[in-house]
TrEMBL record:
<protein>
    <submittedName>
        <fullName>Uncharacterized protein</fullName>
    </submittedName>
</protein>
Length: 237
């Protein structure tokens, strides 16, 4: 039995982190046909037939306890070398799960609780994620004095709208699904009404620089082109 090798990558700098991400992408590339397949296609297209025959022959006869240890990077001596290498490399590429101390990484970073109007439609998990992530994005955006934030894959706009309405950033939200765009716009209207009522009550002046673009089947290159058309500064987070 062998355990996983030590990870040769780090997140010390942005360059190190990118190198790590690139190594993961290169590792996954040969298996995209499997990763991106729907479960149904796994059966209808017999996708298992494209997996190395030696691996299948070996794993088919393994006791279940050994199979369950694969995600922990534990391999058996009698397995084919290529399978052992695959599992050990996979384990060595796993990103750290230990949470970074965001106060250290982003001095001045502060999470504020979302108002009930901005949190509408979110469950507790989503609310927590959006509270933390919006505070991180706000902190990075301020530190580089960005003009506009582009949220690619904005879904129903939970994050994008907090960045716009709560943190007052100019946001371009992009998604491939038009239905999400409709929900997002309806949500934005409700939130605007709320802030307009606050304006009448307290005399604040609110500005909502929020834009939604619906783009089907957007590829990375197209995203980059759209961003450069719309923005003078692009910050990649
Ligand atoms: C997990 S959801 C995003 C959640 C969202 N950021 C939020 O704050 O709630 C991922 C979204 O990415 C969109 N998406 C996936 N691939 C895309 C692509 N190539 N171009 C644009 N949007 C894409 C999907 O339509 C989906 O709405």
């Amino acid at each position: 039995m062998q355990m996983a090798m030590q990870c040769p990558y780090s997140c010390e700098t942005a360059t190190d982190t990118l190198q790590w991400i690139k190594a993961i992408v290169d590792f996954l590339k040969p298996f995209t046909f499997l990763i991106n397949a729907h479960v149904v296609n796994f059966f209808t297209d017999k996708l298992w037939e494209a997996v190395d025959k030696d691996w299948i022959d070996c794993l088919r006869n393994e006791p279940i306890e050994n199979l369950l240890r694969i995600p922990s990077g534990v391999v058996q001596d009698h397995w084919p070398d290529s399978l052992k290498e695959f599992v050990l490399t996979l384990k060595s590429l796993v990103l750290p799960r230990k949470q970074a101390d965001l106060h250290k990484v982003l001095p001045g970073w502060k999470v504020t609780s979302l108002s009930s109007v901005l949190a509408q439609g979110m469950n507790l998990k989503k609310k927590h994620e959006v509270e933390v992530l919006s505070a991180v994005v706000n902190s990075v955006a301020n530190s580089v004095s960005t003009d506009t934030i582009v949220d690619v894959g904005a879904g129903q706009g939970y994050l994008a709208q907090v960045l716009s309405f709560q943190f007052q950033h100019s946001v371009v939200a992009i998604d491939a699904c038009s239905q999400h765009g409709k929900v997002m716009n309806a949500r934005a209207e409700r939130i605007k009404k709320h802030y307009a009522a606050q304006t009448r009550k307290f005399g604040y002046l609110w500005d909502f620089p929020f834009d939604f673009l619906y783009i089907r089947n957007l590829q990375y290159l197209e995203i980059t082109n759209i961003m450069s058309e719309h923005l003078s500064h692009v910050v990649q987070l």
